[in-house]
Amino acid sequence: MIRKIPIRDLQPGMFVVDLHKHWLEHNIWRKRFMVRDSAHVAHLVDEGIHEVSIDTERGIDIPQPIQRINAVEQKIRSLADIKAEMPRLVSLGEERRRAARLIKEANSLVTDMMLAARAGRDVDAGRLEPVVAKMLESVTRNPDALVPLACFKQSADYTHEHAVATAALIIAFGRHRGMPEPEIEKLAIGTMLKDIGEAAIDARLIEKPGMLSQAEYSTVQSHVEAGLSVLQATTRLPDTSVAVVLEHHERYNGCGYPYRMAGDEITEAGRMAAIVDTYDAMTSDRPYRAALSPSHALRQVFEQGGSQFDPNLVSAFVRTVGIYPVGTLVLLQSGHLAVVEELHADNLLSPIVRVIFHAGRKQYVTPVDVDLSRKIGNHYGQIVRAETFEAWGLSPERWLPA
To answer: Phi and psi for 369 in degrees, rounded to 5?
Structure first.
């Protein structure tokens, strides 16, 4: 017998046959499975599952009332304990102000370290630890503040801003996956240092607008091992950070560099770094091509899951930044254009947006913030598709969250 039950009634020994949630909105790959233990149930809750269907012929049925009461009571206690341990979230506006100052501090620090590497001076990676800790705190307080601001490049110093943006992305990525904070900090330190070897390469080659020759491409590729040589000569990096520096250009199908590693030969840190490095590069203006919108870049990364990137990690990354990442211009059913302002972790398809423009009339409207997840009070409908600021002649600088 198939029985639909709320997630609060799910118990170990039950056999789940339907999660009643779109596959893009959770990270559970098996559609039918036996519930192993209470930790397995907690994982489903963390993934935003609200109700399931169970097969009572392949697993146990709903327990007797007294058992169910005891289970619910225990779950309430567990959720209360978790909530008590979580830092209090601050408003998005307040956290964006903090994040803006933090990004300036991080960019300045990375610039100093790149200049030191170029001059042959010591590069002390330990200087990054305090700023990385602050970045992790920022993402914990409000995950929609630091990452969009860091990914919005505001100067010609792409290498430095890219280092900070990818660190912010990998912090959010690691936190979404439930990784321990010390491990996330190691990932971020490696990500901020991963391109320090470019200090040894002619800047004109790094910024060359045309296609590179084979010799030039080999020179650019050498920045990976050159960077590690610079760092190992002056500092001691954790293994996780070293893996990020060495492997962020390796690819899941073995077509990357410098060692042409493939699949699980690449560490988890390297596979995560490859995703954030590529995504941020795609969403940045480069001499040889214009930036892609966040949603278009995300689509390309998703399509390369299983070839360029670990498909499981790609799926987790999509849920980290959202189907429509913060800062994406979207067309609503009403014909209005809006900018994604804030995400709902349990409903990535219906974020909070700022309506700014009427596509049909081709004119600005008074900006208004709309929560697309609300069934009452939303007169704009849902998102039809992602758009680009350039196609509509709109200024990203004016409307991106700040």
So the answer is: -85, 135
pLDDT digits over 159-214, tens only?
A: 889 999 999 999 999 999 999 999 999 999 999 998 887 765 555 545 656 565 56
Q: Which residue has tokens 């049925």?
A: 61
Q: Rounded CA gap, 220 and 381, in Å?
A: 47
3-state secondary structure of 363: strand
Buried/exposed 152-184: b ≥16 CB within 10 Å, e otherwise: bbeeeebbbbbbbbbbbbbbbbbbbbebeeeeb
Separation of CA 282 from chain center: 14
Q: Is CATH 3.10.580.10 correct for 92-321?
A: no
User: How many residues in total does the chain contain?
Assistant: 402
Q: DSSP labels for 62-101?
A: PPPHHHHHHHHHHHHHHHHHHHHHSPPP--HHHHHHHHHH
Domain boundaries, the chain: 2-85, 92-321, 329-399
Q: What is the pTM of this model?
A: 0.73
Cis peptide before 258 (omega within 30 of 0): yes
- Distance, in Å, from the CA atom of 52 to the CA atom of 102, rounded to the nearest integer, reads 42
